[in-house]
């Protein structure tokens, strides 16, 4: 086989991965662990009188109901918390899609997270940030102003992308790691995978463009926490853990990060 690691058993996968892997019972366990880490970091920073800065995905999203529940139940103040969302779909003229649209990440966060948190606890609107195609440098400037990102949460795409940092084979790992927030065209494989998950396969209705936080902003987070749980994640995590560092499969760049953790389910760890 061209890529032997795609066919590693669970034992082979966990033998000597190039980035730490935690195997958890099921999807709920992965999402609960993500939510709990979010809450614990906020409580820790609140106790120190310091702000908390997260880079947050809309995919995976299963952690958010658990997070909302913990915040409301434990009365955790988010007033000094910043959520920097990874990305958003764009129209053909490269503007944000309307927040009312089914695919909008802004709409999702409003419906599922911010509106579900007690108004006495939720962060101000200016601390709920999305990358803006009209001002692509803003996120980088904001992160510097805030003193860096505490934790970047996310998943891994079918071609190894983190956020919408699509593979660019022509770039060296160093060049790819230096990419900042930008507008780009979404690859057909990403549009296909997302159409299956979000639009019942209606690929022609998937946006062609997006804006994404850069690999530079992600890599420079103090911690990176990724969650994988889908059937096709079986090969993705094996590539992430054993593939060469390259812009061809961007998540491999995170092998060199000092504090990264990949949480996966038993389903993903095992091969059929």
From TrEMBL:
Keywords: Isomerase. GO terms for biological process: N-acetylglucosamine metabolic process. GO terms for molecular function: glucosamine-6-phosphate deaminase activity; isomerase activity. The keyword Transferase does not apply. SUPFAM superfamilies: NagB/RpiA/CoA transferase-like. The keyword Isomerase applies. This is Glucosamine-6-phosphate isomerase/6-phosphogluconolactonase. InterPro entries: GlcN6P_deaminase-like, Glucosamine6P_isomerase_CS, NagB/RpiA_transferase-like. It comes from the Bacteria.
């Amino acid at each position: 086989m061209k890529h032997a690691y795609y066919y590693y058993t669970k034992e082979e996968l966990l033998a000597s991965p190039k980035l730490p892997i935690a195997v958890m019972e099921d999807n709920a366990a992965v999402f609960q662990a993500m939510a709990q880490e979010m809450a614990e970091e906020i409580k820790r920073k609140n106790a120190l009188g310091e702000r908390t800065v997260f880079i947050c995905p809309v995919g995976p999203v299963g952690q958010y109901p658990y997070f909302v529940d913990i915040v409301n139940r434990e009365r955790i103040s988010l007033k000094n918390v910043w959520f920097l969302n990874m990305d958003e779909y764009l129209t053909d003229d490269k503007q944000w899609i309307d927040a009312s649209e089914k695919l909008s990440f802004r709409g999702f966060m409003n419906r599922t997270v911010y509106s579900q948190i007690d108004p006495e606890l939720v962060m101000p609107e200016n601390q709920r940030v999305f990358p803006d195609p009209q001002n692509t440098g803003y996120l980088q400037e904001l992160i510097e102003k805030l003193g860096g990102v505490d934790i970047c949460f996310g998943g891994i795409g079918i071609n190894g992308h983190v956020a919408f940092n699509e593979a660019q084979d022509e770039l060296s790992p160093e060049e790819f790691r230096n990419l900042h927030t930008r507008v780009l065209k979404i690859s057909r494989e990403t549009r296909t995978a997302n159409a299956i998950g979000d639009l019942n396969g209606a690929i022609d209705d998937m946006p062609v463009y997006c804006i994404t936080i850069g690999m530079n902003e992600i890599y420079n987070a103090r911690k990176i926490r990724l969650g994988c749980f889908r059937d096709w994640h079986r090969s993705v995590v094996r590539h992430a853990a054993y593939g060469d560092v390259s812009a061809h499969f961007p998540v491999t760049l995170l092998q060199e990060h000092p504090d990264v953790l990949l949480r996966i389910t038993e389903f993903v760890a095992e091969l059929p």
